[in-house]
Amino acid sequence: MNASMELNLEEMLRIKLEVLRREHRDLDEAVHALETSGRPDVLTLRRLKKQKLALKDHIVKIEDQLIPDIIA
Question: What pLDDT score does 69 carry?
C-alpha cells in the first residue's frame, strides 16, 4: 500500500513540475514581450522576473524530490 501511495505522490509531483515549467515558459515569453516593447514598465518587468525566479526555485525543489539519492 505504501508503494502505491509513493507512486501516486511521484505522479502528482511530475504533473506539478510540468505545470510549473509551463508557467515559467509563459512568464519568460511575457518578459521577452515586455522587454521588446517600446518603453517597458520597469516595475512590472522586475515583478515578472522575480516570479520567474521563484518558479525556478520551486521547479528545482521538485526535481530534487523526484531524483533518487545515489550513495557512491
Answer: 73
| Measured distance between the N- and C-terminal CA atoms of the chain, rounded to whole angstroms | 30
Helices 42-66, 2-36: inter-axial angle, 10-degree rounding: 160
d(CA 43, CA 24): 19
In the three-class reduction of DSSP (H, G, I as helix; E, B as strand; rest coil), residue 4 is classed as helix
**Considering Cα of 2, then 7, then 8, then 13, what sign does the dihedral take?**
positive
Instruction: Please provide residue 39's backbone torsions phi and psi, each rounded to the nearest 5 degrees.
Output: -130, 95
Measured distance CA(44)–CA(50) in Å, rounded: 10
Task: Tell me if the pTM is above 0.85.
Answer: no
Domains of the chain, by residue range, sit at 2-66
